[in-house]
Amino acid sequence: MDSSAIAIVAQSQRRMQTDVEVTLLGKKLLLPVSRLISAEQQAHYVLLRFEDGATTQLKGRLDELEPQLADFPFFRSHKSYLANLSYVTGIDRELLVFHMKDGQNVYIRRDRLKKARDAWADWLFAQMRKGGSSPT
């Protein structure tokens, strides 16, 4: 198996994992990525919202967390928000928000609206090609 095939297999295995080790301000933690709905920067903390309604506040920056989630369907919609596209149920163009499965909204910067729509559409299309169903 050549190195590119090994990289593809490794990437596929990372995507299947539900828990990922991430580092914030030098502290390592196990993050249940498949259950993470969104992350929000609040001053010096990152607020993580999960599908079961639980929230966790960690000292750190969204800028530090975002690249560690690059293998998962997260979209940086605003300087203070990171949304898991698998939990998006719709986009409100007037309010500039993602509507999420848990009923909450994740804000989208006006200049990122087209990219947000395209990213979600691409994610939905990929899910349909895999034989998955729409999250709504």
Polypeptide structure, described:
With 136 residues, the chain is of the alpha+beta class. The strands form 3 sheets. The chain has a 5-stranded antiparallel β-sheet, covered by helices on one side. A 3-stranded antiparallel β-sheet has the order 8-9-10, with no helix packed on it. It is 26% helix and 38% strand. It has 3 helices and 10 strands, in the order H-E-E-E-E-E-H-E-E-E-E-E-H. Residues 1-16 have low confidence and may be disordered. The longest helix has 18 residues, at 113-130.
**Estimated helix fraction:** 25-40%
Class derived from helix and strand content: alpha+beta
| Portion in beta strands | 35-45%
Mean pLDDT across every amino acid position:
88
Between the first and last Cα atoms, what is the distance in angstroms?
Answer: 39 Å
What series of H and E elements makes up the topology? HEEEEEHEEEEEH
Q: What is the alpha-carbon Rg in Å?
A: 15 Å
The major beta sheet can be summarized as:
5 strands, antiparallel
Please specify the SSE layout and strand pairing.
Layout: H1 3-16, E1 19-24, E2 27-32, E3 36-42, E4 45-50, E5 55-59, H2 62-65, E6 74-78, E7 81-84, E8 88-92, E9 97-100, E10 105-107, H3 113-130
